[in-house]
Specification:
Rossmann fold, six-stranded antiparallel sheet, 17 strands, 3 domains, Glutamine Phosphoribosylpyrophosphate, subunit 1, domain 1, single chain, 618 residues, alpha+beta
Length: 618
């Protein structure tokens, strides 16, 4: 896990100066070493490759980057981990070191690229963002992992190219201001959407797409032909049989086994839910005491606290837990928003991101460098309550009244999914855009908004949208930034492509068969987690009572924001009078706008304040 930087320009001096700025802005991503190389890849075209190192595998200097292949033809900068590097090294017949150990994954990767070229990406199990210069052809190979776990951003004006792990590196090196992406800001406030496409909050800076690679001619950086090397399955061909549940267990166990490969201690993010508990249960069964500790967020609010389930899992697996109580000081959370926002390069998804930021800070103080997370499971197995309604809608549309009635009856008996319905959240999926935006959006920005997110034509279509655009990308974004700001690598074993290919080919029925979301996953986890967790009725996650604090602890912050000229209003994103009216409606108990929307207004203002020097008109 690291930070990478690349600069292409006609001036060596410009390349060196900009590369240094980018490395400085990403030093938090790699405190264990910094490396750079600058060369003339074509006549009159210079390329700079930079790397901030967080040493996880092969802690010696042999793992330092930029790394050149043994034939001298390829130089690599790489952020991420290749979990099957041992198997690939064996296939390449790479020599072992003097102790008999396999070389690190960076060495394996650059030699695999030298041998197989872009075909290597289909063979990799892992997370990565990389750039590799071919000294013979002058071309630069760029690639990103299948799900976009690792970030990669780029900007070009047609003559020069900047590429980096974080947007702030491009902001620091480009020496210019960028137009604010008003449409993205509006979608964020109205619907809570971030990272739904390749655009960023800064015009002209975009993300490189997951599951793709490109071969770039440095003399023409604006020309970037994209090639897809992986795509998710489109058909639900599995019915959720016992054999499917067994295969699910096998693939998840294999993934976690590979994700435990590390030369530094590994911990676990444990929420008390079934996903993180599955990771903890399998990891401790595989390696026992080698799992250093579990980190958890708890709350004084009984409706959000998961201490009971965290303790159940910790006792079951025999692991130590360290907890952060986010209710101890809500103002500490609010006062940390600015720093967390700078780390995030965009507005925070919610205030719970700050609690994650603080949890990562704690992990660093405990000496941890690697944490396993349960991220990515909800989008695959119908884990969010909304998926229950999407499936119910599909059954009713197809006239399957008996199946729909059975689903509802089982849900009432075995889960809280119906009891947890909230109208204020449902407006994201139903109704008009006017209802969903609750009068908050500036009139000049209304036409840039799409209609509410919707339920999709079929359950499977909607599931894939969440996986590729509406949910998972934003979660991966904040988890990477909150952790890497604290020099922590978070690994996501549910996002092994072998597991995803299985999960997305399962029928919707298999995910709700017992009346609980994630039915088939629960079947696969028998004896790996306590029954109190495997058969849980409710779903919480890393929640905090921000809606309660809006009208109490945070009221002075809202009053101050509404008394001043809001940047979001001046930039044509929000209607300040509409925000003020919406805030007062919320104080009087109205469900629209909901507390999360209002919290996003405040978080957007904090983003615009922190990044004002990089935004036109801010």
């Amino acid at each position: 896990m690291c930070g990478i930087s690349l600069v292409v320009d006609s001036s060596r001096q410009q390349v060196e100066a900009r590369l240094e700025l980018m490395l400085q802005s990403q030093r938090h991503r790699g405190p264990d070493g910094v490396g750079q190389t600058v060369c003339e890849c074509m006549k009159g075209t210079w390329v700079g490759l930079g790397h901030n190192r967080l040493a996880i595998l092969d802690l010696t200097l042999a793992g330092a980057q930029p790394m050149t292949s043994w034939d001298g033809q390829h130089t690599l900068i790489f952020n991420g981990e290749i979990y099957n590097y041992i198997e690939i090294a064996r296939e390449l017949a790479l020599p072992r070191d003097e102790t008999g150990r396999c070389v690190g994954d960076s060495r394996v990767l650059v030699e695999a690229i030298a041998r197989w070229g872009p075909d290597v990406f289909r063979q990799l199990h892992g997370m990565w963002a990389l750039a590799c210069l071919n000294h013979k052809t002058g071309q630069i190979l760029i690639s990103r992992d299948r799900f976009g776990i690792k970030p990669l951003y780029l900007w070009t004006d047609g003559h020069q190219l900047l590429l980096s792990s974080e947007v702030k590196a491009i902001l620091s090196a480009s020496n210019r201001r960028f137009e604010l992406n008003r449409a993205a800001c509006g979608r964020y406030v109205a619907y809570g959407l971030l990272d739904t496409d390749l655009s960023t909050m800064f015009g002209d800076i975009c993300a490189f797409p997951p599951s793709h690679f490109a071969l770039i001619d440095p003399s023409r950086p604006a020309t970037m032909p994209l090639n897809r090397y992986w795509a998710p399955p489109e058909q639900c061909t599995r019915l959720g049989t016992d054999a499917d549940a067994d295969e699910l267990r096998t693939r998840l166990t294999s993934s976690i086994s590979m994700h435990l490969r590390s030369d530094v201690p590994v911990g676990i993010l444990l929420s008390g839910g079934i996903d993180s508990s599955a990771v903890a249960g399998i990891a401790t069964r595989l390696c026992g005491a080698q799992v250093a500790t579990a980190l958890s967020v708890v709350s004084d609010d009984a409706s959000l606290d998961e201490s009971r389930f965290i303790d159940d899992m910790a006792n079951y697996a025999g692991i130590k837990t360290t907890k952060v109580n986010v209710s101890d000081d809500p103002m500490e959370l609010l006062n940390t928003v600015s720093d967390a926002t700078w780390a995030n390069d965009q507005p925070l998804c919610a205030l719970s991101d700050v609690s994650h930021f603080m949890l990562m800070r704690l992990a660093r103080s405990l000496g941890l460098k690697v944490l396993l997370s349960g991220q990515g499971s909800d989008e695959q197995f119908g884990g969010y309550n909304k998926f229950f309604y999407f499936y119910l809608k599909q059954l009713l549309q197809h006239g399957n009244l008996l199946a729909a009635t059975t689903l509802v009856a089982r849900a009432l008996a075995r889960s809280d999914v119906l009891r947890e319905f909230r109208l204020g959240e449902a407006v994201r999926y139903i109704g008009s855009s006017k209802l969903a935006t609750a009068g908050l959006i500036h009139s000049s920005n209304q036409n840039l908004l799409a209609e509410p997110i919707g339920a999709g034509r079929t359950y499977s279509e909607r599931e894939r949208r969440d996986f590729s655009a509406l949910s998972l990308p934003a979660l991966l974004h904040y988890e990477d930034r909150m952790s890497m700001w604290n020099s922590i690598e978070v690994r996501v074993p549910f996002l092994d492509h072998r597991l995803v290919e299985l999960s997305l080919s399962l029928s919707p029925h298999s995910k709700f068969a017992c009346g609980r979301p994630k039915s088939i996953l629960r079947r696969a986890l028998v004896d790996l987690v306590p029954e109190s967790i495997r058969l849980r009725r409710d779903k919480k996650g890393f929640g905090i009572p921000e809606s309660k604090w809006i009208g109490t602890t945070f009221r002075p912050a809202f009053d101050e924001m509404l008394r001043s000229d809001m940047r979001a209003s001046n930039l044509g994103v929000l209607d300040q009078s509409g925000v003020q009216a919406g805030y007062h409606r919320h104080l009087h108990g109205k469900s629209i706008p909901n507390g999360r929307q209002l919290m996003r207004v405040l978080l957007l203002e904090r983003f615009l304040e922190r990044f004002s020097q990089h935004i036109d008109g801010a």
